């Protein structure tokens, strides 16, 4: 999988800018790259079991660059709340 393709694959489920859809789909924006990369590697190794359907299929196709590049990208993205979270007036 190409580096930009991995980032796009993340956005397919985690939304534009990696903002997620809490509580079912966690946010990626602003997460430390090391944390995101370590979680993806845990899915590859089978030690992380949550949502194996989508993540299990995707993560098996990733190499180290496919993990590190989007992890670094999402670390620098400024988190914005998802549409489902309403701002207080």
What composes the largest sheet?
none
Please tally the β strands and state the result: 0
How many domain units? 1
Distance between the termini: 44 Å
Q: From the 3D structure, determine the CATH topology.
A: Cytochrome Bc1 Complex, Chain D, domain 2
Helix content: 40-55%
Low-confidence stretches: none
Task: Indicate the structural class.
Answer: mainly alpha
What would your notes on this structure say?
With 89 residues, this protein is mainly α. It has one domain: Cytochrome Bc1 Complex, Chain D, domain 2 (Orthogonal Bundle), CATH 1.10.760. 52% of the residues lie in helices and 0% in strands. Helix 1 (3-14) crosses helix 4 (64-76) and helix 2 (33-45) crosses helix 3 (52-59). The N and C termini lie far apart (44 Å). The mean pLDDT is 80.
Question: What keyword list fits this structure?
Answer:
Cytochrome Bc1 Complex, Chain D, domain 2, 89 residues, mainly alpha
């Amino acid at each position: 999988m190409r580096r930009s393709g991995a980032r796009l694959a993340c956005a397919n489920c985690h939304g534009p800018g990696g903002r997620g859809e809490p509580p079912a789909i966690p946010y990626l924006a602003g997460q430390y790259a090391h944390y995101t990369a370590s979680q993806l590697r845990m899915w590859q190794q089978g030690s992380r079991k949550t949502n194996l359907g989508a993540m299990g299929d995707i993560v098996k196709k990733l190499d180290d660059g496919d993990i590190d590049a989007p992890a670094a990208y999402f670390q620098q993205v400024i988190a914005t709340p998802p549409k489902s979270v309403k701002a207080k007036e």
